[in-house]
Structures are given as C-alpha cells and as structure tokens.
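Help needed: design a sequence for this.
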C-alpha cells in the first residue's frame, strides 16, 4: 500500500480510516439483527473509533495494523459463515483473509489460532475442511518464519517474565487505555 501511494501520509490516513469503516461494517454484518435497535451498535463504533487511537489514525504508517485487523476480521467472519452455511467458498475466503492478515503484521498470525479453535469447537464434523485450515495455517507459519534468526539481545526466552507484576500492570493499563482518552486513569479503568 505504501509503495502505491509513494508514502503519502495523507493518503495512508484515508486508507486507514476506510479500513476501520470496513471493520465497523463487518461488526455490523455479524452482529446486527433486524429486530434489534441500532442503539446497541454504539459500543462497537466506540471501540473501533475511540479517542485512544487518534494517533494511529493520524500516522500513515499504521495502515499495516489496520490491514491486520481488517483481514483478521474478514477471515473470522468467513469462517463463521462457513460454519453456518457449510459452503467451501467461505472457508477459502477465510483462508485468504488469514494469509493477508498474517503477512500484514506478526500479530495477524493469531487469526489461525482463533480460526482453529472456532472450527474445532463447531458442531460441523467436516474433518477435511478442518485439516485444510490447519494445512494453510502451518504453511503460513512456515513461510512467515522461514530464515528467521533470534536476535542476540533475546537469547534467554523467559528473561522478560522475571518482573511479572510489571507485565500484569502493563496488560491492565493497556486494556484500560483503549476505553479512555485520559491516560492517567487507564489502570483504574482496566481493572
């Protein structure tokens, strides 16, 4: 995307906003029913466009993270449609969304874990489709980590877990900061 726009930050901001509108549309398609009042959809729009993310919306580089979010949701949306309709095209679209999400950013790889859990907890017993999903998940992981080398600074894998209290505090603060514009109260809101 950046190469197509020649790294024009304004264009990347608009693309990010468009992707977030698409995220909101996917939430609407998945959760909105005709007999529900639209007022119940306000929390979804608040979570997608909350004040804590204004810097992400104004920095063009964040388009990669918006892509990861959008295509992860597309993938899980179509996996959900596959479970409900048992049409192969939905699983293929889910796999395609998972591949794009995975190569947009590293945290896009989590869509494969989520999709695997969703597929194996479903009541559909189509083992071929579950194996197909797992095959593409493993293939994506293999391509993603091909030629990966561990940096010298992180040779001890669990060295960061020594300060468990700081990790828990960081998690709670991060969770709370997504719900508030005022960062001083993020920890209290996270609890």
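Sure. Designed sequence:
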């Amino acid at each position: 995307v950046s190469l197509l726009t020649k790294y024009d930050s304004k264009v990347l901001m608009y693309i990010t906003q468009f992707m977030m509108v698409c995220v909101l549309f996917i939430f609407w398609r998945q959760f909105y029913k005709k007999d529900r009042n639209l007022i119940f959809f306000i929390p979804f729009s608040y979570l997608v466009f909350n004040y804590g993310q204004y810097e992400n919306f104004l920095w063009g580089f964040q388009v990669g993270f918006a892509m990861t979010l959008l295509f992860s949701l597309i993938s899980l949306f179509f996996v959900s449609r596959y479970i409900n309709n048992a049409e192969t095209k939905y699983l293929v679209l889910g796999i395609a969304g998972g591949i794009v999400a995975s190569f947009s950013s590293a945290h896009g790889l989590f869509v494969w874990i989520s999709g695997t859990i969703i597929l194996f907890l479903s009541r559909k017993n189509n083992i071929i489709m579950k194996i197909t999903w797992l095959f593409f998940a493993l293939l994506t992981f293999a391509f993603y980590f091909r030629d990966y080398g561990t940096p010298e600074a992180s040779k001890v894998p669990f060295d960061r877990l020594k300060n468990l209290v700081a990790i828990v505090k960081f998690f709670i603060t991060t969770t709370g900061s997504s719900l508030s514009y005022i960062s001083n109260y993020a920890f209290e809101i996270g609890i």
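The chain is about 65% helix and 0% strand.
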